[in-house]
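Aim 2, interim progress: modelling of the adenosine-5'-triphosphate-bound target.
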Amino acid sequence: MADALLELMNVEVLYSNVILALKGVSLKVAPKGCVALLGANGAGKSTTLKAISGVIASDDGRVSGGSIAFAGQAIAGRETASVVRSGLVHVMEGRRVLPHMTVEQNLVIGGHMFANAARMRRALDGVYEAIPRLADLRTRTAGYLSGGEQQMLVIGRAIMAEPSLMLIDEPSLGLAPRMIEEVFAVLHRLRGNGLALLIVEQNTRVALELADYGYVMESGRIVLEGAAGELGANEDVREFYLGLD
Ligand code: ATP
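Predicted structure of the complex, ligand included:
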């Protein structure tokens, strides 16, 4: 993968100047590729995504070593807004929709950088085409949507920025199996449209079906990596790292 879209080399993260949460993480995402980041609770998966997007600063964390390159530019330590403008978005765990606003108003906020209405309309149409469920719900109040619909909304809001890479943290968390399927169908469609994805997910099976490559983390380090099919098929990996039977 000579021309990675995203490349982390030996990234270290310190929280509050004392807790070393990442101890030298290296990983790559190819243009239009999809990579799953797996591992137990507390392994450092969310921290890795936050370090990439710059959100780590609001948790009193910082990249204290190594490098992060996105589309050939060093981005470690940059402000999140500037990272978003360069084409990298981060869908965080927890589906933070603006509950009193409609679906469309939530999406418009994701497109706040557009200077004119025509540009905004084009981006909205793009989201409705990729996620038709949101078109049906456009006038609904976001706070009354189901968990799966809210997950689709935060994904839609993120792609308003027309990114080339999306980081997404635990999209299946707390969703019923049918909703997980629907959310992952959206992610498969976005992949098909050429969006690269770096996904953190406890539901290893659905993550490895979506991804082409995977990394397993433990205690702030990558302990294993490989093609998604191989990781999912390896008996030891399934048992010890991924909790599959
Ligand atoms: P989970 O699935 O539980 O979110 P994770 O693999 O995403 O797990 P992280 O949330 O990245 O793990 O946490 C990695 C380590 O960093 C943990 O030991 C955690 O306690 C610590 N950590 C996370 N956030 C902070 C913070 N704001 N301040 C201090 N330590 C933190």
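The pocket of adenosine-5'-triphosphate is lined by residues 15-16, 19, 21, 39, 41-47, 59 (CB under 6 Å). The chain has a mean pLDDT of 93.
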